[in-house]
Specification:
about 325 residues, Enzyme I, Chain A, domain 2, Rossmann fold, mainly alpha
Length: about 325
């Protein structure tokens, strides 16, 4: 991938500059951070396409997740074009972009797809008067279908597999937990290119042979690594709390608790099997926090921050202790 030298005095980070300047490839940018920073990088990339490559703005496809984000993107691109015009007021190309901006493809992905289907409805054999189902109406339809499905299954004779699922995933009072699980599974399946194929593949993963222990299950390693990943997050919360105890007027007495708990989480991270991890979680106990009195002259804000971080870690460890089996 060819990257031009970063302009002198530019405030972009090296990674941001790569995202702005990279060309000639399919580029995926994974950006974790403030939304304004990601938007600024994307706007800068678009402006460079317009100014340096002389591409008309209505030849670009720019999609967002929300209408508000699309409106903001259109506004910021317009501001960036006007800024470039102040540098080069005689540019007919830039003046043309301000005119073209109103018809540029800057919208949500759904809106763009709807526009394409309506424009070429005769090729895809879709009624051009179709509309996108709103969330409330969609939820009502799903509930109606779910009700019909359960009524049909309850009415079948010798439907042992269905009743076994009801017994396993429902409560004594209702089958709502099973309905919620089915709804969640359906929603998640829609994130795959071929939902039905993905669901069929999931069924096959449960058709197991020669499984004697939990370690033999095909998904155990993924679950194990996920727990380890979350433990890393728990450790970071406790370590942050420890740092705050060392601040001026920090709750220094809490450091005694945190030191023990950090050591325990670090030991959990060293465990190499699911069974050992289970037993280690059962032994993971958060002791009572040391008492801090007014005579200790502690900053209440720092004290609450440390307690909040520790409570978050404690709650997460507790949920895992119940879930790791």
């Amino acid at each position: 991938m060819k990257i031009s030298p970063k302009p002198e005095g530019a405030t972009w980070t090296d990674d941001q500059w790569k995202a702005i300047d990279a060309t000639g490839n399919n580029i995926l940018v994974a950006a974790a951070g403030w939304e304004v920073e990601k938007t600024a990088v994307l706007v800068e990339r678009i402006i460079r396409k317009i100014v340096e490559h002389q591409i008309d703005v209505d030849r670009l496809l720019i999609v967002t997740f929300t209408n508000a984000a699309a409106a903001e993107m259109r506004n910021r691109i317009g501001e960036a074009i006007e800024k470039e015009l102040t540098k080069n007021p005689a540019s007919l190309h830039l003046r043309r972009q301000l005119t073209l901006l109103n018809r540029a493809n800057i919208s949500t992905l759904h809106s763009f797809c709807m526009k394409v289907v309506r424009q070429y409805y005769f090729d895809v054999e879709v009624d051009p008067n179709f509309r996108i189902l709103d969330d409330t109406e969609g939820e009502l339809i799903r509930e109606e279908i779910m009700e019909d499905l359960f009524e049909e299954e309850y009415g079948k004779e010798n439907n042992d597999l269905f009743f076994d699922a009801v017994d396993r995933f429902s409560s004594d009072k209702s089958d709502d937990p099973l309905r919620a699980l089915i709804g969640k599974l359906y929603t998640f399946s829609r994130s795959h290119p071929d939902p039905n194929a993905w669901l069929d593949e999931m069924v096959k993963t449960y058709e197991l042979e020669n499984v004697e222990t939990i370690e033999d299950l095909p998904w155990t390693e993924d679950l194990f690594q996920d727990v380890k990943h979350q433990l890393t997050g728990i450790l970071s919360w406790l370590q942050k709390g420890m740092e705050l105890t060392k601040e001026p007027a920090g709750p220094a007495k809490y450091s005694e608790n945190l030191e023990v708990e950090i050591s325990l989480v670090e030991s959990l991270l060293k465990v190499e099997s699911w069974e050992l991890l289970y037993h280690a979680f059962q032994q993971m106990k958060f002791g009572r926090l040391k008492t801090i009195s007014k005579r200790d002259a502690v900053d209440e804000s720092l004290k609450e921050q440390v307690k909040g971080l520790r409570d978050r870690a404690k709650k997460t460890v507790g949920s895992h202790a119940k879930g790791v089996i």
